[in-house]
Q: What sequence folds into this?
């Protein structure tokens, strides 16, 4: 508002008049009261009216006019603090004083509230700079007030409400407690603005002065009380207390916090010495090329550049070297490109700016921090974490940032405190029971905290909240360092906990990916973010490498994307109908998912993620601040570059012009590293080795000279490093599984079912495509048929009338095949991946040419399909599309389609099972199919056959009794037999897939092997024959004397079997005869065999025993089988008994339905004495 005298009024005069009248009515000091402040008659009402003006005018209208008037009238220092000072500490029961003090507190809170700059108006731009300086005056007056302890008086206002139990407190009590805490938060938060000049003494409003006031006025004791009883006596005040702690400790140097007075003074001296050395190093650099006393006059130099171009440079710096001349030219450039401000929060939430504290403030803050770690750390941060997880209303968007930063700061304090204690314990031994555990900070080392931290890091990274992400990275780094110290603790319990925590952290591969992505994507988020990022990368890789070396079998869980599995069929459908269409794909996906979810960790593979150009650029940017970095930060960069160049053997990633120039400048200058520093030798050696490798690599590969100008992708870097391109193996694509319609449907029904399945899958565009193909093919084929028919009619006409010419039937011409053109890429992909489309094309009559897994395979319409057939197929598809088939019981068209392999398995099961069984899991496929019978020892096979036959006889003898099996018992036996069959199939390692490829084509080796085997077999036959003939001549004499006795006890019969003779049966008396075994020559003639050959059962042919099946009607080898018989059986027909004994081996495998299938083996060799078979009937 413009006044008459030319002055401009920034506040409405009416508003100013109302506010100033209220301020003057509060009271004042007079001579009658000896300078003491005297309250007005309506002081309480005036205070409440001022509160209403602030709330209704400033807050509602968003103008800040009332706050400006109150600041100009000096309400805080002249009235409010004076009123609070009039309340003595011993007047606890004075209710009027309490109400007035609360009214003053209600005014102090909005007046000291942080000024928000979200919605800036003209009034904001007018008043905010003035109000910021006014708030500094409020803070100076409050913490340095001489008449009374203002902060302590404010606490006394809230003591009656705090003394009430939490369940008995009213809403007003909770409001008073929050009012007090907000007032303390505002006092701790007020700081000199960065862009506004403060005329007063900043020491009076500094962090040290605030810490001293909090310690003197017992605010720290209040905070410890609230923190230690959070969750029990206080609930919603946790975030306000965290806000106070954040503004008290942000930016405080922890190393200086634990220094005593002597060390603090020495530290100041060391800082001075360090600065003097830095100054001396700068002077030495300058004096290398400094001008002489007589050469300080003006100089102009012509500098010759490339292509014989000359540049004029003024100043003697160009005389020393060309590099200084170019640097001088760069400095004199007129054009400066616009630069955006660095991203970073420089407001009250900034925690990266260091804050110096006095020794007294360090001592007071250290005492409070130690007490807080001992009593309030776990309750406070555990309560706040739960509030953040459930997204409570009191949690603001900046509270997670404060939460993670405070945790990182206190964890670092705990580590420094333990290190100091450990140093002291080396001088004074401590008992093992007196050692401190990590239980004081256990609330931030549990799994819930890791879940919250990972979620916050992921959310901040995705939403680009860089300040929040920086705080989370600091927290994660300190947790890793704390857990590493736990692993080195002498207590076994701490070691086990640290092992478990590291296992949980490193088990998730998403954590590894997140760290690598954060490092790779740094751009311009500010130095604080850059420091947090590089620190996390350095410590994470170091601790992970150490942990992976200690745990060789370390496993990680990956969450890589795989194709979603198709859901199984409905539960109401039988298991036979539950053949999933994509069963083979699901099996592959489940196998791939298993290997990708948990696999062995490879640190070299993980470290390779940091070889990208983005990660290297991040550390190069961090190293460019080398003159401002600490020793630990320079060591961090050195270790990373050393790992890239020498451990990972990818030094070529550092061969870039700007990187080499930076390294060279750090060592050789100008403004390089201090040559007397402890880290200089390490950097000097690193840079020297890198430049040596660079020159050597340029000699090997001259193309590197060009590549040094650009960033390098991994393929280029690999080629430059090793001289060849990186070999990659691409996975071969797999075609769709072959489908079929379940049997029992006609051709027309099958087409309708497939069309309905395509419609259910929302693939109507594929139906339109195949209809267009059929229509064009039908038109083309009909045109060809019409032309061919006309041509044949012309050829069949006679050449002349009346002349009878012989009718020669012309060869029937076949129409050409019609090539199917997919057209668009989606159709081409569907022809390869869509099993339903391929099934429909197959039903129509299309033919596919090429292997199954060839994406470029072609489809054609064969010549055999006539135009009418194509027309019929097209009509069926149209009919099925507009009237899809409807099925009973809620079934869909897809339920009638299955894989062909599933149908094959069902047919195999029906062959081997006695009855239809729906209990077998059709979805199970075994790793290897059965490749044939398993070789078995002859004696073991004979025993198995005898055991099976005895059990079957026993069951047959019990059929007439009451032990008839029920249906449940039969079903249980059947299930057990099927389970045994499945277990046997799972253990198959078939020779169909496991074999040596060298044995397949080496015919010469096979021939030599079989010749040697044939000679060995012939030699063995001759030796056995000689032994048997010698034994037979000796035993014949013994049998003549004892034959009569033995004939009464034993009976033996042998069956002479020949291809042309019938079965010969023996009488009841003891008779023995040899089995006539034909040799290989008996295939053509049976009369050329000698008596010894016919009577010797051991001279047989291995080929016949192998090639002739046991059930062959022309069996050459038979075994006499004797068994115990009863009296009734002896009176039976001898012919029947002999036939049963001769055919028992042939039908044994067919009759065995209840036991496992026994592999077919060669017949066992009988026990023979003097040419007679000695089989005992007792063995049966």
A:
């Amino acid at each position: 508002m413009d006044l008459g005298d030319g002055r401009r009024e920034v506040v409405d005069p009416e508003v100013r008049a109302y506010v100033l009248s209220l301020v003057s009515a509060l009271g004042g000091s007079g001579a009658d009261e000896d300078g003491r402040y005297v309250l007005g008659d309506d002081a309480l009402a005036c205070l409440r009216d001022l509160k209403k003006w602030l709330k209704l005018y400033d807050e509602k209208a968003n103008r800040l006019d009332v706050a400006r008037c109150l600041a100009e009238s000096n309400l805080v220092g002249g009235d409010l603090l004076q009123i609070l000072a009039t309340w003595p500490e011993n007047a606890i029961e004075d209710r009027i004083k309490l109400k007035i003090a609360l009214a003053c507190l209600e005014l102090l809170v909005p007046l000291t509230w942080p000024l928000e700059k979200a919605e800036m108006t003209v009034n904001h731009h007018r008043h905010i700079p003035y109000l910021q300086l006014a708030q500094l005056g409020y803070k100076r007056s409050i913490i340095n007030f001489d008449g009374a302890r203002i902060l302590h008086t404010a606490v006394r206002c809230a003591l009656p409400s705090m003394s009430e139990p939490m369940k008995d407190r009213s809403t007003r009590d909770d409001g008073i407690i929050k009012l007090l805490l907000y007032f303390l938060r505002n006092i701790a938060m007020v700081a000199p603005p960065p862009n506004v000049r403060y005329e007063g003494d900043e020491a009076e409003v500094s962090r040290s002065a605030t810490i001293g006031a909090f310690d003197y006025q017992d605010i720290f004791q209040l905070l410890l009380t609230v923190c230690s009883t959070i969750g029990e006596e206080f609930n919603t005040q946790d975030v306000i207390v965290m806000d106070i702690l954040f503004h008290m400790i942000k930016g405080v140097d922890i190393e200086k916090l634990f220094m005593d007075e002597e060390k603090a003074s020495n530290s100041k001296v060391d800082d001075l010495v360090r600065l003097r050395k830095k100054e001396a190093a700068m002077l030495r650099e300058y004096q290398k090329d400094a001008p002489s006393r007589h050469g300080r006059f003006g100089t102009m130099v012509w500098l010759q550049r490339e292509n014989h171009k000359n540049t004029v440079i003024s100043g003697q710096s160009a005389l020393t070297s060309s590099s200084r001349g170019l640097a001088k030219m760069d400095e004199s450039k007129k054009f400066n490109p616009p630069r955006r401000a660095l991203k970073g929060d420089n407001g009250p939430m900034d925690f990266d700016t260091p804050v110096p504290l006095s020794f007294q403030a360090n001592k007071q803050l250290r005492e409070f921090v130690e007490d807080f770690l001992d009593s309030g750390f776990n309750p406070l941060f555990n309560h706040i974490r739960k509030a953040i997880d459930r997204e409570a209303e009191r949690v603001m968007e900046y509270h997670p940032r404060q939460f993670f930063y405070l945790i990182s700061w206190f964890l670092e304090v705990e580590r420094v405190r333990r290190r100091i204690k450990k140093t002291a314990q080396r001088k004074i031994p401590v008992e093992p029971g007196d050692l401190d555990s990590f239980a004081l900070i256990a609330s931030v080392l549990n799994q819930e905290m890791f879940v919250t931290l990972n979620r916050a890091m992921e959310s901040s990274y995705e939403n680009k909240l860089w300040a929040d992400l920086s705080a989370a990275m600091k927290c994660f780094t300190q947790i890793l360092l704390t857990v590493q110290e736990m692993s080195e603790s002498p207590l076994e319990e701490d070691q086990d906990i640290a092992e478990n925590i590291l296992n949980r952290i490193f088990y998730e591969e998403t954590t590894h990916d997140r760290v690598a992505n954060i490092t790779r994507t740094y751009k311009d988020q500010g130095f604080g973010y850059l420091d947090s990022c590089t620190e996390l990368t350095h410590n994470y890789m170091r601790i992970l490498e150490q942990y992976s070396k200690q745990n060789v079998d370390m496993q990680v869980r990956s969450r890589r994307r795989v194709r979603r599995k198709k859901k199984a069929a409905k539960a109401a459908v039988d298991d036979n109908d539950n053949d999933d269409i994509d069963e083979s794909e699901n099996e592959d996906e489940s196998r791939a998912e298993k290997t990708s979810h948990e696999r062995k960790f490879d640190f070299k593979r993980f470290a390779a993620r940091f070889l990208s150009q983005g990660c290297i650029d991040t550390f190069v940017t961090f190293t460019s601040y080398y003159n401002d970095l600490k020793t630990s930060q320079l060591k961090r960069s050195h270790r990373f570059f050393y790992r890239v160049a020498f451990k990972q053997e990818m030094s070529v990633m550092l061969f870039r012009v700007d990187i080499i120039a930076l390294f060279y400048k750090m060592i050789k200058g100008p403004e390089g590293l201090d040559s007397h520093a402890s880290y200089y030798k390490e950097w000097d050696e690193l840079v020297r080795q890198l430049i040596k490798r660079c020159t050597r690599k340029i000699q090997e590969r001259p193309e590197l000279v060009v590549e040094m100008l650009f960033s390098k992708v991994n393929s280029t870097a690999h080629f430059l490093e090793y001289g060849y391109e990186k070999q990659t193996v691409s996975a071969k694509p797999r075609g769709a599984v072959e489908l079929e319609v379940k049997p029992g449907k006609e051709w027309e029904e099958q087409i309708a079912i497939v069309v309905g399945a395509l419609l259910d899958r929302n693939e109507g565009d594929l139906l339109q495509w195949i209809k267009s193909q059929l229509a064009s093919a039908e038109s083309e084929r009909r045109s060809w048929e019409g032309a061919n028919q006309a041509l044949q009619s012309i050829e069949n006409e006679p050449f002349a009338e009346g002349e009878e010419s012989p009718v020669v039937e012309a060869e029937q011409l076949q129409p050409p095949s019609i090539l199917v053109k997919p057209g668009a890429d989606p159709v081409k992909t569907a022809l390869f991946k869509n099993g339903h489309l391929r099934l429909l094309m197959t039903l129509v009559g299309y033919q596919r040419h090429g292997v199954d897994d060839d994406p470029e395979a072609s489809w054609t319409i064969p010549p055999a399909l006539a135009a009418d057939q194509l027309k019929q197929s097209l009509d069926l598809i149209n009919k099925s599309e507009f009237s899809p088939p409807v099925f009973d019981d809620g079934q869909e068209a897809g339920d009638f389609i299955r894989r062909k392999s599933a149908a094959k398995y069902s047919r195999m099961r029906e062959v081997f099972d006695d009855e239809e069984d729906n209990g077998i899991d059709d979805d199970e496929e075994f790793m290897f199919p059965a490749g044939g019978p398993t070789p078995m020892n002859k004696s073991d096979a004979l025993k198995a056959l005898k055991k099976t036959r005895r059990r079957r006889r026993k069951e047959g003898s019990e059929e007439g009794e009451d032990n008839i099996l029920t249906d449940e018992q039969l079903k249980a036996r059947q299930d057990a037999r099927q389970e045994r069959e499945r277990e046997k199939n799972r253990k198959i390692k078939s020779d169909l897939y496991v074999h040596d490829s060298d044995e397949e084509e080496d015919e010469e080796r096979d021939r030599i092997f079989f010749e040697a085997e044939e000679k060995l077999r012939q030699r063995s036959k001759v030796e056995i024959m000689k032994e048997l003939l010698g034994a037979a001549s000796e035993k014949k004499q013994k049998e003549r004397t004892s034959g009569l006795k033995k004939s009464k006890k034993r009976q033996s019969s042998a069956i002479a079997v020949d291809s042309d003779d019938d079965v010969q049966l023996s009488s009841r008396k003891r008779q023995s005869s040899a089995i006539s075994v034909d040799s290989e020559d008996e295939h053509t003639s049976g009369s050329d065999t000698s008596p010894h050959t016919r009577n010797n059962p051991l001279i047989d042919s291995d080929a016949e025993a192998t090639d002739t099946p046991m059930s062959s009607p022309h069996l050459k080898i038979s075994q006499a089988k004797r068994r115990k018989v009863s009296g009734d059986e002896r009176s039976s027909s001898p012919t029947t008994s002999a036939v049963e004994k001769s055919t028992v081996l042939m039908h044994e495998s067919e009759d065995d339905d209840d036991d496992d299938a026994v592999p077919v083996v060669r017949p066992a060799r009988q026990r023979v004495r003097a040419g007679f078979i000695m089989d005992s009937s007792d063995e049966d």
The longest strand covers residues 300-304. The chain has a mean pLDDT of 75. The first helix runs from residue 13 to 26. The chain is about 55% helix and 5% strand.
